[in-house]
Design brief:
By secondary structure, the protein is of the alpha/beta class. It folds into 2 domains: 125 residues, Rhodanese-like domain (Oxidized Rhodanese, domain 1); 212 residues, 3-Layer(aba) Sandwich (Rossmann fold), CATH 3.40.50. Helix content is 54%, strand content 12%. The strands form 3 sheets. Strands 6-7-5-10-11 form a 5-stranded parallel sheet, sandwiched between helices. The mean pLDDT is 93.
């Protein structure tokens, strides 16, 4: 009988030796059960070929072609990645809907003697549980927002707080984006589904009865939308204000965004949309600073002419209760450690 799971945490604590996702590499890349390995029953190209034949030629011929391809691929996996597993190995196999791909794969594994099983409903059943967790009802977590102007090193403080025993969620890390106009990271962002899987996994690892620090964000980080249940908690959460001198913030941003600021084409492309908001004269000035390789001057101008104005406006529209304020004179290693100590103290006092 296929295994039935009733929560995302049940998927994470499945009890099998290995979870095998037999969907195509493209499907797997978009999202998958955490810890699963990808042994595709059909490649991306094979899946497209079978699908086209099914709709345009004949369902029978498509199933016939698909069966031959799946059997060939399963044989390659058994002779390759699975060749060293002994008879006690117990894998859990899933495909898109828990149908033919996982069924054929599991049947062959069982015939060999492995104690294989499938997931009822496949990946879709897992996805529905994630959606229910993030889109229906409310989260039980006690969030505190770490708030402050751009360049106050909020993200850099999260691992320091974690080292001090404070629960944290790094939303920008999960979203693969620094949450600002120039915030794209190497490698790009995950798919929305992949982000949500990583988010649920992180939330389930936290103690909901203890405070959790989350950096104050908008409802969208790059191209990733924050799910409603999380956003509702963030909107209602109290905040800790982090401040630092403009000079310290400029130095920090010039260093943290060095990969972007030193790329003329990227800067020009990402600043161009701001011409409608800040005006051509202002954006031309930013571009002149970049062309002159005055990265510190560019960081300062962006703070003064764009980021600080945007932050001040958002604060007026989204005022929240304040647990306390922390000022960092510097944002070097010692300054960040002192700020982390002060924030951790405020969090402990909130218990």
């Amino acid at each position: 009988m296929p295994r039935i799971f009733d929560s995302p945490s049940a998927f994470f604590d499945h009890g099998f030796d290995t979870v095998i996702d037999v969907r195509s590499p493209a499907e797997f890349a978009e999202d998958h059960v955490p810890g699963a390995i990808n042994l595709p029953a059909l490649s991306n190209e094979e899946r497209a070929e079978v699908g086209t034949m099914y709709t345009q030629v004949s369902p029978f011929l498509a199933r016939k072609l698909g069966a031959s391809l799946v059997l060939r691929n399963v044989a390659d996996h058994i002779a390759g990645p699975l060749k060293d597993y002994d008879g006690s190995w117990q894998p859990l196999v899933y495909c898109w809907r828990g149908g033919q791909r996982s069924g054929v794969f599991t049947t062959i594994l069982k015939e060999i003697g492995w104690r294989a099983d499938t997931v009822k409903g496949g990946y879709q059943s897992y996805r529905k549980l994630v959606q229910t967790y993030l889109y229906d009802g409310s989260l039980p977590h006690n969030l505190i927002l770490l708030d402050g102007y751009t360049g106050t090193a909020k993200t850099a403080l999260l691992p320091r707080l974690a080292a001090r025993g404070v629960q944290t969620i790094d939303l920008e890390g999960l979203a693969g984006h620094r949450g600002s106009l120039l915030g794209a990271m190497p490698g790009g962002q995950p798919a929305q589904r992949g982000f949500e899987t990583a988010l649920v996994q992180r939330l389930l690892a936290l103690d909901p009865d203890k405070p959790t620090i989350v950096e104050a964000e908008s409802s969208k980080i790059g191209q990733i939308n924050l799910p409603p249940a999380l956003w509702a908690r963030m909107v209602a959460a109290p905040r800790i204000d982090l401040t630092a001198p403009l000079s310290a913030r400029v130095t920090y941003i010039a260093d943290d965004y060095a990969d972007i600021l030193r790329d003329p084409a990227t800067v020009r492309d990402r600043l161009s949309p701001l011409r409608r908001i800040r005006g051509h004269k202002t954006v031309d000035h930013w571009q002149t600073l970049q062309d002159a390789r005055d990265f510190t001057g560019l960081a300062a101008a962006l703070m003064r002419d764009h980021y600080d104005k945007s932050y001040a406006k958002s604060r007026r529209l989204n005022d929240r209760a304040i647990l306390g304020s922390v000022h960092a004179d510097t944002l070097n290693d010692s300054g960040l450690n002192m700020a982390a100590d002060a924030i951790a103290k405020l969090v402990r006092n909130a218990l």
